[in-house]
């Protein structure tokens, strides 16, 4: 169901049919806070825009990540470092970013290396 349809159904149920907020929540499967927000405002559509997109902190650490990944390529699978282990090694060196940023970067590097060969 679209947001605009939900807003119309909530307002119709409250103003025309005389339903309580609790009944609207149960019948239309919408949270109580959403119902209150719809009834208090004259908006016909609610949207959220992120003001600032934070960037991953891998920028200064790309050389180190590349070094770990390149060292991994020549090793047998039992001796390779996992991405978690690479992340822990980077943390020991002072990296303060997230594991997810490392994982995404390594996946992108791996994808570009596979397409080259």
From TrEMBL:
This is Homeodomain-like domain-containing protein. One of its GO terms (molecular function) is DNA binding. Keywords: DNA-binding, Homeobox. InterPro entries: Homeodomain-like_sf. It comes from Neorhizobium alkalisoli.
